[in-house]
Amino acid sequence: MPTVELLFSALPEHVRTARLVAAAVARRAGVDEAVLDEVRLAVGEACSRAVGLYRSSGADRPVRVVLTEEEKKFSIEVGDKSPEAEERPADAASVPSARGDSPAEHPEPLPDGSPSSSESSESSEAEDEGQMGLAVISGLVDDVEVFSGEYGDVIRMSWPLNPAALS
Prior knowledge:
With 167 residues, the protein is an alpha+beta fold. The protein is 44% helix and 22% strand. It has 6 helices and 5 strands, in the order E-H-H-E-E-H-H-H-E-E-H. It has helices spanning 15-29, 36-57, 83-87, 96-99, 117-140, 163-166; strands at residues 3-8, 63-69, 73-80, 143-149, 152-160.
């Protein structure tokens, strides 16, 4: 089970590199050529989502991409260990993108009882972009999982390997 792990600074210019590496490793693993554009696009969306979440939270950690070739499938995991992910318990129900709601949708009120609009609007905007990215990924990849793992929120995407490439 060969694995490639890529860590990159949460900067938009590094997303392209992650896409290229993912496509090259997928090709070598035996993913069908017709699917490689979907791999590139899905990895780009997942990495862009992670970069956006990091930048909106001010996190100074790398984005983690793990590419794994298994017997009959190729998987890519993109992790975004933001400060918010560290504060949540590690179960899938607590991942905002897995449930469709987020703390930003229910902001803590200010002492006078009014919602904190500036904080909630930034968080809400980042989460809305994250939800849009997940919708795009779901349209590109048949096998998608979103869960909270050791490295924060993780998007796992899998593609079947081309049977001709396996022989």
